[in-house]
Amino acid sequence: MSDVTLTIDGVQVTVPAGTNIVDAARQAGIAIPVFCYHPRLKPVGMCRMCLVQVGTPKVDPATRQPVLDANGQPVIAMMPKLQTACTTPVSPGMVVKTTTEEVRFAQRGILEFLLTSHPLDCPVCDKGGECPLQNLTMGWGPAVSRFDYNDKVHFEKPVKLGDLIYLDRERCILCGRCVRFQDEIADDPVLGFDNRGRNWMIISKSDPPFNSKFSGNTTDICPVGALTSSDFRFKARVWELQSKPVVCTLCPVGCNLTLDMRHDRLMRVMPRENAAVNDIWICDKGRYGHRFIEAPDRLTTPLVRRNGKLVPVSWDEALEVVADQLTLIRARHGGQALAGLAGPQLSNEDLYLFQKLLRELGSENIDTGIGGPAALPPDEIGGWLAPGPNTDLSKLGSGTVVLVIGADPEEEAPLYMLRLRGIAQRGGKLVVAGLRPTKLERSATQVVRYRPEGELAFVQGLLKAALEHSSRTATLERLAGWKELRAALERVSLNNLATACGLTVDGLNQLAKDFLTASQSLIVYGWEARSAGPALTEALAALMLLSGRTGTANNGIIALLPGGNSRGAIEMGVRPDAGPGYTPRKQRGLDANGIWDAAREGKVRAIWLAGVDPAAKLPVARAALEAAEFVIVQDLFLTASAEYADVVLPTASVAEREGTYTNAERRVQRSRQACAPVGESRPDWQIVAAVAQALAMVPIGGGRNGPIPVTTEAWSYMVAADVGNEIAAQVPGYAGITYAALAATGTGGSWGRQFDDAIYYDGTSYTNTEGVGLVLPALASKGTVNLTFTGKVTRFADERPMLLLEQVLAYDGDRHLRGSKLQSLIPRGYAAISADDAAKLNIHSGDRVRLISAAGEMVIPARVLADVPNGIILLPAGLADVMAAEIETGPRTRVNLAKVVTE
Amino acid sequence: MGLTEHIVMRELDIPDISDFAVYRRHGGWEAYRYALTEKTPADIVQMVKDSGLRGRGGAGFPTGVKWGFLPKGVYPRYLLCNCDESEPGTFNNHQIIDKNPHQLIEGVALSAYAIEANVAYIYMRGEFAAAARTLERAIAQAYEAGFLGKNILGTGFDLDIYVHRGAGAYICGEETALMESLEGKIGQPRLKPPFPAVAGLYGKPTIINNVETLANVPRIVEKGVAWYRSHGTEKSPGTKCFSLSGHVNRPGNYELPFGVPLRELIESPEYGGGMKGGRPVKIIIPGGASAPWLTADHLDIPLDYESLAAAGSMLGSGGVIVLNDTVSAPYVAYKMDEFFKHESCGKCTPCREGTHWLVRTLHRMVEEGHATAADIDTLHSIYRQMAGNCFCLLGESAVMPIKSALQLFPHEFEALVKRSSSRNGHQIPLIVRH
Amino acid sequence: MTLLDIHQAEIETILARYASKRSAVLPLLYLAQDTYGYLTDEAIREVATILDLPPTDVFEVVGFYTLFYNRPVGTWVLQVCDDVPCCFCGAEELIAALKHSLGINEEETTPDGMFTLQRVKCLAACDRAPVLQANLDYVYDVTPDRVDTLLNNLRERAAEARKRGVSGRFAEDYEFTRDGRLVQIERFSPYRPREFAGEASPPPVTPPPAVAPEADSGIDRPETRKASPL
Ligand SMILES: Cc1cc2nc3c(=O)[nH]c(=O)nc-3n(C[C@H](O)[C@H](O)[C@H](O)COP(=O)(O)O)c2cc1C
Ligand code: SF4
Ligand code: FES
Q1: Are residues A718 and A866 in the same domain?
Q2: Which of chain C's termini has less CB crowding within 10 Å, N or C?
Q3: How high is the ipTM of this complex?
Q4: How many helices (H) and strands (E) would you count in chain B?
């Protein structure tokens, strides 16, 4: 768009056409006060705080030329009334006056009006200190109140809007920001206004009330203390807080957070602006789910099992036990008798050192996660084909095609839902395909819904159609398995594929063509897509490669994996088949399930669990841990697995340490330390290094299987950055990703805290001064994609009628959510079925049902949901009381469903 | 100077005109048939433009000009008939529907043809429940007679007219609030631009006109521009149905050509029949509650848009409220602003807070008898802080009663203060001043 | 029976009028209000479900418009206009008389559940002041001395009122004749000059309607054709 030059208070500014006066003035360093206006929301002009004088050059109606005065200057016709700067777009030659007596009078007037009904309870208000009403009152407001105190409208003091948010209606200035945020940005229209006039008030009538995963953001953008979070109410005064920048590790988005600390205590979690990742928002999981940091049951000292009991010991003692036992077992049974599992919440440093040590000890038995019937091999596609450097979803709009397939972003990666929705709102094409409806669908420009038999047909249909429109098959031809895939595609007709997925041939062709010809195209897939088997994601990879744009900014595949750093774990080589940077290992180790089997057979004898709790979910794991000779549990809490541990090592939480994390887009972000570690806990990387050091000192050293190849010098990392530097030097693709580089990557956006944030009130989101992360260069940039097309699909042992799908929930049994305000929002275990299926079996929500598979059976309450397709059962396997492993035969399971009449 | 023939209130000339057959017999629907079969929509727009017909809903904007704002070639278009009539003192739309409904429907149909709309909604205030049924039945008759529906009179023109009832909100008379309400939302005004002609109902080009405005259209087409212009004044052609209420002998609706002096409306035995009990006129509110007040000094002002504007007031909706010397000006202002406070939608600060503050202050002064000199200053500043700063005209209108009362009858406010401070034992209730 | 079961045909006709389902929210709320007596939370949610709207949006609408009652109201809701000019033409006296006869204050309901009394703003019938609406039936010229006649009449018609509901979907208008009888105003009745109080001239004879007004049995069978009584 072209630029427009105008004059504001005598200052000339040039801004893009379409900019409103408030934003134009901001660029000129002129503050126009606002309340209802928020740069991320559509202007509404309700509060009238931003009234200014506006004039435009007078035009001679006859000649259509500007009228000039004696000095040759254009004559300015001032508008008779003041205009709201937030709703008035700039125009060439416009003259704006923001400080005249008239403007001041109006602004003072509006402020006085707003204060008439305000309770003026700043001393006890949580917003005090960062409240624009308070600030503007200081700047503009009257010194005395002319309003009769008895005339104030009184409301019952705070009412609960939902479990997380309280509303103080007396403080509300009815700017509608919260309502508009929920409608426009979150697409959860759960807030509204009841009544009218002076009795207007915010209500929420969803079930449960304020049912939104983004509710906390309303407390940020509420310009007064009307909305407060149950998590922070009356906790602290904001001027006592110190903001510490960290990265959220609770999902693969990696939102930038600040932990607001009072001394060493966490008071609240706020978003830290990063336009490319979370903008100025975070989801409620990130905001309220960090109470685990201060959980009273955090481990504070190392524990060692003595006479069957875990007893506190010093680090030296614990490390000695670990080193002795590992050395012994290794000496007796070789390095392959060792195994290690690390969780996807750990940082790159932790993960890198974890696999490094195990591999130095001669073990390739390394994996992320806990295994179980539903476990899948590490996702390579989302790594090889991740979008390239400078990726910024906030910049995408028209010209972009996004295919979201088999994913539920709202649950798997909440913030991505906002980002993807934003692309559609800015004119991009958002195709949402899946077996069942998800919330993102409401924002989609096209919805594709297929039956389970149709999902592979859909992707293959797209690929087949794309092959007809693209000649860029060179990259593909080099890939193992491509010939077979291609041959398979040639054997089926597009017509049959279209029929199988419920689209038309034209529809498939159109979509494929759109995807290939778009200026940017992205594919996002999640658990549902991955659980179909690799064939589905492989076909997506081929489709992406056909676009010829992989590895460039904003083009590629984003795989939604569980946990905050699954991508990092894969890239750091915490997997049995490849080392750091997707380098295949000569010898493949055991994956988690292999480890469980081997342990029961006595082949694996020492198991090291870092940030994982397999015993909580897997009977096989319990048996394996029971059988193992030596078990190390390294965690924040005394987990179920710790029951089997010989040594328990307390780790520092994300708040208590530095680290880097790689998000789903392969953006590496740095998280800082916000407080001292609890008790004697240490960061995982330090623990690993300390174990290595202890190993190096074990006197017996060698034994039958050779000397311990670990030296003190090689393992003497002082700070996390030392590990970071080694990663940058050693891990393919991570060259240049040093701590210094990560800290120097800009401020992350345009709003946040501004030079005069009292007035430019955009919320309490903080400006990002700590780096916004770097997207890794594409692995595939040199055309050396190393993918294999296996063509594998999830197969079933039997033909039971119902298909059981795991459902990922944002609020699940994750032990990190313990003790947080989210706990009341975590549902009890259930199996969700469609209304039709329920009717057939006379099942009502709450009835107990029996699910019987080839592997076993389980009894669980049913939940009848309108949007579950017939024949499908959704099982939220992440909930603590759902033992999915009891019945699962693989990532997907065929089951019989029966109502339990009476027990 | 009465009318020889009424343009809108034809029930006065033809007693049974509310009956479809009678309406038909007296030339009803002929203008429509003529337009559809012999004129293009553009011809009708031109005719309305030439007639100088001005919107009767309050602003007096030339109807033909408004129709001309429709963007070319954008369809569908909607026609909305504004029958939210809720302005205190205004009740002529009500009577038109009750007594001459077919002319309104023909007007709606004819105007829809002119602007090329195939759907028209008549938005009635929720309280006009029985009137809504009247219209529904009259519309049904028009369908039966083949004037509405598909391929009307074989011309290929389709038109559906629906009655939509509001549910109690004056603000829904504001054109964009009306559209919000019709879309099933709370009735709050929208930002303008875009104007309804460009993006109105469902974001489509929309024309909205008042009942009386649309009821004029068939007669303009039937009798021609020259005939129409022979009524009223040069700039305010035609007639206006004035709603006369208050302390007059014969309150009611009177259709007069524009330009008739106020005095005639009030005093002529044909119309107002003079003041009840012969008491003197004190306050005249000439254009519904939103109009600045006039006094007995203004009785000779001609009732047309220009003259009233020149006198500092407005013709507005044509609801003329005449009050005698028994009323207290502060009390009238209080009642009026109570109305605006009650109807304030809450969207913008000055209207929501200002009306509340005004009413609370006035309530204390006139109902509780506690008034201070500071209250008068406060009243002055409240309306000044509101004036020109509100989102829509409701808030701006709320300024008028109090501003008029303070300007025209300052001594009555001062008297309240005196009375209050001379009362023994009465204290002003607790006022916290910091 | 759900709202949709009871009024299926009518709801479909209503929906057919609009390009967007949401537009039907006011008519459907009227239907729900008449079906359930007032708008219970469940009734509001039911409307939201029928229209695929977030419940909050429908609650908003109920809260904004004054003719929706989210609390129980009497069989007859009496709404007296107390606006200028009515307040100078007997409205206050009328309200006082009603309060006296009913023994309740504004915004209250009589113990027998028969009447709810409200003050409302201008009803656009200023020439017929004092004026009130009973379940949105206009009653013109209600001078205080006519209150008892009015209330008795309404009590007699309680069963009818319950059947019709409070939303005025089957509203009729009433007026007092000069001799104090309460009569229904015929729809499509020919024009009849207004009777001015205090005027000496005899009341004009009412000529019979040129065409018999449509027989109105709409009360028992809601019309669902184009001209439904909504
Ligand atoms: C608060 C407010 C209330 C209004 N109420 C009405 C009304 O009840 N009836 C009406 O016709 N116009 C009303 N108007 C004017 C309308 O906005 C609009 O100007 C009118 O319907 C246009 O029709 P016209 O051009 O035929 O006058 C109101 C305006 C405002 C600001
Ligand atoms: S709660 Fe806050 S954000 Fe919402 S309307 Fe009130 S002041 Fe605005
Ligand atoms: S009206 Fe512009 S900021 Fe509220």
Answers
A1: no
A2: N
A3: 0.94
A4: 17, 9
